[in-house]
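Exercise: predict the fold of this chain.
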Amino acid sequence: MEKHLHFTNVNAYRVLPQRCLYMVSFIVLLSLCSFNFTSAQSLKEYNKLLLEMKASSDDGIQLRGSRLEKLATELQPTVYVRDEIKAFGGGSPACAIVDGASVAKIYAENNYFNSVELLTIKIDQSGLATPINLTSLSNFPKLKYIRLLCDRSLTASQIESMVTGSNPAIIVCYLVSLPG
């Protein structure tokens, strides 16, 4: 009887490291996958995003949706970033509109950026000169939304490739607006 217990215990010790190895491998794989999902920035189509936000049962999300819509559709003090950086509308700019070729200028310090909540980046046929790095937008302390306005038909994955980094405080959306 003792030999049988001893034999069973020896097998148990042989199986245990193999099971531990599988378990450790599984945990490492799971953590790597969850890291990739949490580091990716969510990108949604603008109109679908607004519908989801307005339909939310969370009052805070509904308010953010209303604010985004107001910033995007109503006249606001705005800073335009092209060859030069100019503000219009009086008061502190709540919105910024950036030409795709001028994206690099949003990483430079500028007092106009301090109050901007909505950053609209126009993407034309030439695309973006510089990818949008969400982790490098410290010049926009009040930034809540980035809207990519495309004048050509692009897929969501093509648009996602133009955005790097992650910032959970910023909602990123896109709108394809084909010239008629």
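Check your answer against the key: DSSP finds four helices and nine strands in the chain.
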